[in-house]
Each structure stands twice: as C-alpha cells, then as structure tokens.
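notes to self, project folder thing:

trying the whole complex as one job this time. last attempt i did each chain seperately and stitching them together was a nightmare. two parts in total, labels are on each line so i dont mix them up again. if this works i'll redo the older ones the same way
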Amino acid sequence: MTGVYVLGVAAHPWGKWPDKPQLQLAIEALTAAADDAGLPLRDLDGLVAASSRFEGGLGWGLHANEVLQAVSESGAQAINVGGGCAAGGIAIHTAASLIASGECEVVAALGAERMPKGFIPRPPGQPDDVTDTDYLRWVAIGATNPAYWAIEARRRMYDHGTTPETLALASVTMHEHAAANPLARYRKRITVEDVLASPRVADPLHLMEICAVSDGSAALILGSEAAARRRGGPLVRVAGSAVASGRFGDPAVRIPTVSMASDGDATHTSEVAGAVLRAQAAAGIGPKDVDVLEMADNSAWHVLAWPESFGFAEPGESDRLLQDGEYGIGGRLPINPSGGFLSFGEATTAQGVLQVCELAWQLRREAGERQVPGASVGQSAVLGLGANGASVVLTA
Amino acid sequence: MSAETPGVPVAEDLFEQGADGVGLIGTRCAGCGAHYFPVSLSCRNPVCDDKRTVRTTLGRTGTLYSWTVQHYRPPALYRADEWEPYAVGLVEVPEGLRVLAKLIGRDTDALEVGMPVRLVTSPLYTDADGRRVDTYAYEITGDGIGAGGGSGSPGPASSTDGPRA
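result (full assembly):
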C-alpha cells in the first residue's frame, strides 16, 4: 500500500451554462486539474467518472471513456461509477483505491453535470407500479424532494425547538461563505429577513433554504507519494476515504421512499454517518480533529442535523453552534467554506468532487478570503439517492 | 366529491378498502416480523436469514410525527383535478413504521405533532374513462400534544422516539 496524494484540482464555476454541453464542462475541469498537477492528460493511468443520469455518455450519463475519446485517447482505464449525488465521492474513493493498491500511479476522478430546471423529475426506465417508490411518491402523494427535507425540519423544530430564524441563519452562513468564492453560483450576502421573505416551497423551508440545481464540473487528480513529490508544493494526502450504504432501521425520511422504520436503532442518515466514521478510522482521526467540513446541505435543515448525526456535535447543539458562529469560517467547525449546496449551487454528481477540491484548496492555503485559518484536516460528506454515502479525509 | 364510493386506486396493490376500513398493503417478514410498505421483494433486515415475506395490511391508524405543506405544484406525474397547497405528513403507525401520506381533515396551519389519524381514501383526479382515481391519505381525528419542547429539551416522545445520533 502506498499513500495517496492530491496532485491537482479544478472546477468549472457552478451556474446555468446552456451553451456548454456536459462533455465540454467535463473536459474543461479535467484539463484544468491536469494543468494544476503539472501533468499532460496522457499521464493518467485511469479516469473514474461520477456518472450522472441527466446528460451525456450516450445515455448512460458522464462516461470516462467518452471523455478520454474526446480529449486524450491514451488507452488509460476508464471506470464509471454510479451512486446519485454520492457518485463524486465514490469516484474519488475508487481512484484512491487504484493508487493505494499500487495498480496505478496517477488517476483522475471527474464529475460534470447539467441539471434540469426545477424539481428533479423521476428517471426513465422504471416500472409504473408499487415496486418503484419513486413512482409511488409522485402519483400517490406528490412528494417533492424538498418535502422530505421539510418534514425532517418540522420535526426538528418539535424535538429541539429550532426556530425559522435559525434555519434561515444556516442559509445566511452558507451565502456568506459563497460570497468569497469566485466559483460559487450565488455570491450575494443575504439576511435572515431575506430568507424568510423568499417564497415558501415546503413549510418550514423557503426557496433560499433549499439547494438550487445547477450546472458545473470538478476534477481531482490523485497520485502516489512519488508522483506528489515530483509535482512539488504542499503535500495534501488522502488520509482516508470510504463508501457506505444505509443500515436497517434508519429513521431518515429518505428520498424517494414512502415509509421508514420508527423502531430501529440505526443512526440517522446511517449511510453518510457510516462513511464519515470509516473515513475517520482510515485516517486515524476523530471528529474533533476535523478543521473544516464540506457536507451536502441540500437544505438548511442539513446544516443543523448532519453535524449532530455524524458525531461533530451533540443532538440539538447545532442551533447554538450556528448562532455563535462556530459553523462559520473562524469558528470551531467551519462548514462548507465553498458555500455548500445552498449557495455554491448543486450539481449532483459533480458536487462530491467539488467538495474535495475545496478541501484541497483550504489545506493548500489557496482559498483566499474564505480561507479557514490553520486548516490541516478536512473532511467531506455526501449522500446519494437511495442510501449511498461517501466521505473523504484530506490532511496536510 | 365523496370518497365513500370506492374509486379506482392510483396504483395496484397500494391499499385496500373493506368492511373494516382502509388498510395499506405491505409485507411482513415471517422470520423477523419486520413490516414493509409498499410490498417488499424481500426482507431488508441483515440479521434475518429467513426472509419469507407475506402480504399484510397495515397502517389503519397512527399519530402525526411530522408534516410539511407543499406550496408548489409537483411535476406532472402527480395528477390532481384541483390543486392548492396541501399537507404531506409522516405518520407513525403501530407496525414499527412511519408512513408518508397526504393529510386531510384539518387546516394546514392547525397541524400538530401527535395528532391521531386514520387511514382513508382521498380523490385525486378523474381519469380518461370518467372514473374517480383515489389515493390513500390520513385524516386527522383529534388534537395534538402541543408545540413541542423548545429551548433544546426534547418534546414529549412516543415510545418509539429515539435520539437522532
């Protein structure tokens, strides 16, 4: 086993890019990451693509072989991984494993996405019957994705006394971070009043408290220690990475299910909690060692609930930590200096890659105005449709 | 339109209506006793090696665990003759499940955690043949248990409420 290091990172700004096909977004991020690594694309031994279902890949979503065919027909191994929004994290884990095993010297993980506008619709190819809950939740209930997060948020208000203002503050904090990030989609600072005045989507969540579907791409080039020393510059190590699926009895109100256990003893959002714990174990760290967390904040509720579910805070403690600025840059555990899904924007499969790019920038001290002081350990956490979780720990 | 005359279910094998009211169609594992809704292809319990699932009905009554009010019309797959913002609830039922469903029978601004509910059918739309298409829904039948804990203390919990982390 060899150590795995970050050689290069790059991302295309998130936004709406109607004039750029997904393949072009992918090529731009991959090429820029290779430049950052100081390597020609022909030096890649492998490319792992986080496959999207929305566009590209001859109908299979982003495909590594399609990208290589377009930009460097080097014969490198092309691997495609699925996993909904977790695919980016799974791609990084796969790339890291190829290097750790000694099979490859340099491997890229890539995500690129162009999203449809509005509520994410049901994917094609599923049967119209009760065996597909993604059919059922639409025809029988009309439950949109924000409805699931809103039901969690409403229950949190009951369990922990969370207020609408605190939920809004979570979004304000994410927008504060994004304001300092040139790659982010929404860079305007906002107030609690702005959030509460935005249209109600699914009570208690407002438009500015749910992620905005966006287009974007991100690439990460990983290599062996020898390759990292040849590159020079600060050594940023993939100290741990992990993939996990959900556990029986998980009480999470999980898209697109229509029922979940009420009597189980699994951790809430066990797929992500499991990945977070495994990545920490692989890195030999605990939650207190993490200096910066990039996590999937599909809604304002996630900013409060996830740090608690994953052991970074006690149940019910997030409200106060957020209010005290502990989840902001300069706080005890800065969350999403990138701006997160809420303000950076959400480009599903590319997001898991972007999270780790942001961690690398933070650990290299290249994050500019959004730099987390003294960041030397960063962790990502991402959830994929169904019950896929992935997490990466970087150290410098 | 009255839901008393049975309409066409929005999906086959989703719910059934009999003399004793409406029940959700699910499965129960003969090995470990876990319940599933809708019908499951197998038992998901990793410590269960039996996995013989049998059809059952469940969820006739419950209590409101949480809810939301949807203010935007869902995509076209959700068909409704009339649309206005409506409540979607998560209802805790006796079979060890929480079930997602439309909520009826109470103003959306008067919902509270802990409200007792019963399973009913509710009309969605009229199909091309002029038939009324029904879905399942929970009807609020009583009052809740207050606004919750506040100030960080957990609210009154049912026996199946566990800590989150």
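what i see at first glance: Chain A has one domain: 4-118+210-395.
need to look closer tmrw
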